[in-house]
């Protein structure tokens, strides 16, 4: 579900390429004015229509739903005594870093977003200045073609979330995606401009495997780590964990496009991107080891319980 939800990022990137590409003929300023007006309108719409809490609509809170599922919605004793409200304190920054997997996933996301945002900012420019199938494309055509990277990312993120739910091994899923993305990126740098059809296919594959781990780490992984058993059910830890992981990734998102612009040759840019994907994969190895060990432990426990029965 989180993989599907995270598709909004890629949809926004696609619209962010299509809309400016459609209005740039009226002047480059409209590429900022039109998207800005859309953002302002949607911001106002959300401000006046978003319901923040279930109780605002007389709906049960998540805690009440959980109690109902456990058959504890009605107190049989001490009815007149109000239930004690558990007060949670925000988790400290250093305590969040000690949660197993937070540092590894944060650093891995640093490199994932470095690659993803380098594509987001530079791919239309790269396509425009590198003839596809022997034909030079216009700015509008280049912008449209670059959206295939994010289209592939929607599919990749959704499948990554689905496989992660089945296997309960998000680090393993992300690792496989990242390893496969390296040779695909190499093939695109070598043969991507040979034909239009090949460009389309390789852009979809690049987006599929590059954005898959990015989508998985920023959503499902962050949510899982924010509710880690070591936090003793503290819901205030989720925001801190998510901020650490996504904030670290945002540093990579800012650094990647800058480094690409500073490099004189496109081959160097692609080598940087492939190296970043490899680094993102290597950083997940300690977490993969923990996931495999935990899976074996659970399997052993299951076999023991079955034999005892």
UniProtKB/TrEMBL annotation:
One of its GO terms (cellular component) is membrane. It comes from Salpingoeca rosetta (strain ATCC 50818 / BSB-021). GO terms for molecular function: transmembrane transporter activity. This is Sugar phosphate exchanger 2. InterPro entries: MFS, MFS_dom, MFS_trans_sf. SUPFAM superfamilies: MFS general substrate transporter. It comes from the Eukaryota. It holds the Pfam family MFS_1. Coiled coil: none annotated.
């Amino acid at each position: 579900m989180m993989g599907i939800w995270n598709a909004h990022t890629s949809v926004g990137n696609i619209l962010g390429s299509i809309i400016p590409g459609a209005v740039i003929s009226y002047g480059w300023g409209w590429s900022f004015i039109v998207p800005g007006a859309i953002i302002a309108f949607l911001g106002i719409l959300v401000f006046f229509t978003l319901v923040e809490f279930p109780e605002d609509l007389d709906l049960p809170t998540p805690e009440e739903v959980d109690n109902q599922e456990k058959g504890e919605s009605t107190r049989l004793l001490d009815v007149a005594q109000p239930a004690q409200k558990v007060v949670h304190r925000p988790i400290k920054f250093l305590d969040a870093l000690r949660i197993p997997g937070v540092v590894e996933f944060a650093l891995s996301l640093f490199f994932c977003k470095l690659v993803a945002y380098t594509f987001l900012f530079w791919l239309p420019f790269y396509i425009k200045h590198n003839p596809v199938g022997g034909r030079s494309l216009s700015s509008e055509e280049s912008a449209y073609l670059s959206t295939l990277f994010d289209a592939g990312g929607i599919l990749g993120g959704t499948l990554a979330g689905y496989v992660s739910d089945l296997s309960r091994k998000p680090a393993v899923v992300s690792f496989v995606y990242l390893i496969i993305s390296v040779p695909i990126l190499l093939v695109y740098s070598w043969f991507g401009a040979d034909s239009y059809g090949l460009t389309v296919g390789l852009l979809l594959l690049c987006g599929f495997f590059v954005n898959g781990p990015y989508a998985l780490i920023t959503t499902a992984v962050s949510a899982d780590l924010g509710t880690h058993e070591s936090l003793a059910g503290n819901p205030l830890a989720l925001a801190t964990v998510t901020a650490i992981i996504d904030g670290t990734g945002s540093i990579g998102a800012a650094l990647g496009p800058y480094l690409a612009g500073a490099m004189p040759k496109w081959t160097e840019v692609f080598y940087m991107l492939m190296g970043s994907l490899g680094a993102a994969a290597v950083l997940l190895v300690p977490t993969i080891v923990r996931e495999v060990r935990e899976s074996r432990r659970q399997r052993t426990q299951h076999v023991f319980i079955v034999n005892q029965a």
